[in-house]
Amino acid sequence: MLITFDLDGVLQSNPFGRGVFPEVCGKIGAKLVETEGQEPKTASQLVMQMIRDEAKRRLLAGDYVGAYDWDDIICTVAEAVGSPARFDIEQLVIKYCTSEYISSYPYAASTLTELSARGIKLAVVTNGFYKYQNPVMTSLGLRHFFDEFITPEMVGTVKPYAAIYKAAVKGEYALHLHVGDTIIHDVWGAHQAGFEPVWVLRKLPKALDALQPWERPTRPEVESLIQKSFASDLCSEAYPEAKPEECRPEYVIKDLSELLAVVEYAKRKAA
Ligand SMILES: [Mg+2]
User: Fold this and answer.
1) For position 271, what pLDDT does the model report?
2) How distant, in Å, are the alpha carbons of 9, 186, 213 from that of 6?
């Protein structure tokens, strides 16, 4: 069995939201404070919006890998604002790899340890560039679980496209599971690539909480959660072939500890 993992929101919380982006936006925003008399907070928010818009613009233009190149996106925004500030984002990520800014999700280490002990092959499939993700996983003590660590700049494509999933398959496996939290990238995309998607949904409605991970996907409550998740994607228009009704998780888990039961069930089902 091969299990691929999404990172952000599944195994790790990265330092971009709380460390990297606030620093970058504050420094670039200083230009707007100086030239346009903006309040520092407003200027910073404007820069963050410009960063998001630039990422979105790249997705819509089909520059999928470039949409995750934060060094280049941030440089583009700094130039647009007329700011002289320049950044080495990898170095900023490393600087913010402290317990104040990054964390692993509950049961991450224990679940990966148990899955490895059962002889299951574990791989990473993330849309974060290796230089941004590797320091976080290393700092959290989770890096050593993965031989294959597949990222967009390595393979020239991104989730939700099948090729990035297929790049993680080195060898023959009876079963392929993918664990992720983003409905288009991790559920629709994994399904397209022939993986059974395990959707991580941390805030489960009460009615679903007591059910098994394989009993949840067909429940009507999941339907609206899929719709909601689909609508909240940064740029679902970038993937016109993805439709909410085709986003079908095979399993829904509320935390990583439930993955062990999923593995046993998937094996029984396949036998
Ligand atoms: Mg994620």
Assistant:
1) 87
2) 8, 7, 18
CATH superfamily of the domain spanning 2-13+102-270: HAD superfamily/HAD-like (3.40.50.1000)
Distance, in Å, from the CA atom of 5 to the CA atom of 160, rounded to the nearest integer, reads 13
Query: Global pTM?
Result: 0.96
Q: State the distance from the centre of ligand 1 to the C-alpha of 173, rounded, in angstroms.
A: 24
For ligand 1, the distance from its centroid to the CA atom of residue 126, given in whole angstroms, is 8
Residue 57: closest CA among 29, 42, 79, 76: 76
Residue 220 CA to residue 215 CA, distance in Å, equals 11
266 CA to centre of ligand 1 in angstroms: 22
For residues 242 and 48, give the distance between their C-alpha atoms in angstroms, rounded to a whole number.
27
Say yes or no to pLDDT of 172 above 90: yes
User: What is the rounded CA–CA span in Å between residue 113 and residue 70?
Assistant: 32
Domain extent listing, the chain: 2-13+102-270, 16-95
Distance CA 85, CA 244 (A): 41
Residues 183-210: tens digit of each pLDDT: 999 999 999 999 999 999 999 999 999 9
CA of residue 222 to ligand 1 center, whole Å: 18
Distance between Cα 34 and ligand 1 center (Å): 37
